[in-house]
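Weekly structure sync, notes
Attendees: PL (lead), two postdocs, one rotation student
Agenda item 3: pending single-chain targets
PL asked that the sequence for the first pending target be pasted directly into the notes so everyone works from the same version. It is reproduced below exactly as submitted, 765 residues in total.
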Amino acid sequence: MYLGENRPSEKSLGIIFHRGNKIIDELPGKGKDMRTVISMLLLFYVSGCLYANETVMKEQYADLDGTSLYYKSAGAGVPIIFLHGGTSTSDSWRSYINKFSDSYIVIAPDSRGQGRSSIGKGPLTYERMAGDVVKLLDHLNIEKAHIVGHSDGGVVSLHLLIDYPDRVASATLLGTPYHIDNYPENAVKALEDYVQALADSDPAYDSVKSRHIAGKNPGKWATLINKLGTMWRTQPTFSKEEIKLINTPVLIIKTDRDFFIPPKVFDQMSSLIKHAKVKHIPNGTHSVYRKKFKEVSYAINEFIKSIEETNACKNQTIAGCNAKNMAPPMGWNSFDSYSCHLYEEVALKELDVFIKTYSPYGYEYYVIDNGWFAEHERIIAEGYRLPLRQHAIASDVRINKYGIVQPSKEGFPNGFKPLTDKLHAKGLKFGLHIMRGIPRKAVQQNTPIQGTPYRAKDIADVNDTCNWCNYMYGVDMNKPGAQQYYNNLIKQFADWGVDFIKVDDVIHKPREIEAYRKAIDNCSRPITLSLSPGRAADEDLVEDIYSQANMFRIVADVWDHPKSFKYHLDRYKIFGKYSRSGMWADLDMIPFGELCLLRRKVNFEESRKRGLSVKETRFAGVNYHWCHFNKDQKAFFLALRSIGCSPLMIGGSMISMDDESRDMLLDPEFIACNQNSVPGKVIHEDGPLTVLATQKKGTKGKGWIAILNTGPKSKTLTLTPKLLGHEKTLECQLIWENEGYSITEKGHKLTVPTYGGIFLKYRTN
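Predicted structure, written out during the meeting:
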């Protein structure tokens, strides 16, 4: 095969591909299906040769069970094994080796009898190839590895999952059947034709043949094809009961245009495997790993990363594990789109979009903001149930006999179970907003504090109130029963399946922050704790107090006003340096798309008719509208949150999100920089221009750069390697754009738009 300097030019590969297609056109009686298979295999070959050889790979042989198994490896860390499809080789994973070897040790063998591995004696079976993988692990002194398998490699992965579960940390399956009955009839016929053509040494397959006779199998082409053909005709034959035995985390890449595997097969496997996650890639074919490299590699990386984070927590207490979110949380919060008035019907619609569109990219937390416990008065208009008040009043709050807030019967008649069931079934997480303190209604009724002889009046501080919330009192933490009240509250949340709690009006209350932390540590469920303002965050409280939470807000409520960008950046300059694993400085939600959907002219007018004041009826001070940011301003907003490792919580409606915003939010590089978890540092300032940079963990000479303009006029800056802290030329790629350029000693001039941002991925030569 072609490696390094021996790799052919793109021009010569084009000739090969053109010649192959010309032969295909001249083949008699092969039909459309046969043409599809041939074209696909030629593409596999060409793609394997075109990848840039950026990573230095070790190429070695291991003598296993009468077979000399070729494998290549690169990188260091947790091991990942990539298993190729039939008549392919390890070269097909070249781009994955380049990407994953930055963070993992990547091992890619040529399967028995294929590529540079010898075929040995006896039949060729998937089970035997799985045994080869286990022996290779033993040879390399690897106890357990993540497995990524395509097509035949996926079937080998199934054998590993069932026969050797202790050796598999996780498996990702691409284009994988579990039974020969999974193949459509036309695919079976095409596969038979393909085997016959290989056996006849059809000229159309010179490229396929050449990769298998140049290594350890000269003169054994006919033997290989005979054994492969027999294997494909008779295997795999896993029963559904066997698939159900799989208890290891599995990621299934679902496609809808795979010639060999219908979509229903992926659905069947996901329903049978207990811990299966599904990543649906629209328009994906059998070669999805190649044609959709960006999406597939991102999905695999996020999947493996989440498993490694979970494994890191297994030997810790629940509280200790929860305190170490390995990367900034990502998700959706309902406030920017529905304020304090989200209700079940709309919540379920938003949830469906969240699961389908956003969760595959790592967005994990689905959070309902304030007001879920209030029996709101509403009118029906413009397709929504519109509220007549901005905030609930004390009598609206629904509580149980112990003074604990409960889901509103008006807003959530079925409680939160319909939401938590759907989320938890997909491995996602559910969150709730809660106001600090105890409901005034509980104090008025003097409800008992469960498990104590005390009552609400014994612990309430009626002089501790929030200036915008008139239904809660603070809790005096010096009073007996106070901590137990918070323990009871958090236990109730845990029983509902809550995974995330956003506590409001608390950032200035150290004793109550500690009380929430203790209550979470005392409950039976890991819960992520987010702190929101009552006043401005205090730098003196960061290390001793805010460090007890997973997120702490450093700004007031953020809306789509570009003139506030300087405020955001200034606050980050103060607090960003404190962000670290498990404790993230929070720049608030992302107000993109359709906002304030329930604050319409019609409900304002109706509220005024009923004698309510403007203050009582206004919708968090903002009316219904679409996000005011242009793309340059969105780039500023997102670049700061990405390079600043702020939690990424979408605020606008996901149902109607515009294409531009959605594409920016789902861009893998934007997410990768944020989840890299290394907050950017200011490396250059020039008036309204600020340049921040961060390095990709575990690498040298790779990272991201954000250039931010907080001023009302565009500004020009000449970038040089020295200005960016490097000595060598930087190869840069604009995130959200298909433009790249080099930054040399001569400099590269960039114009940063008004209140705009430029976000770059870089690597040094």
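Discussion points:
- Residues 462 and 473 are 6 Å apart (CA to CA).
- The first strand starts at residue 58 and ends at 64.
Action: rotation student to compare against the earlier draft before next sync.
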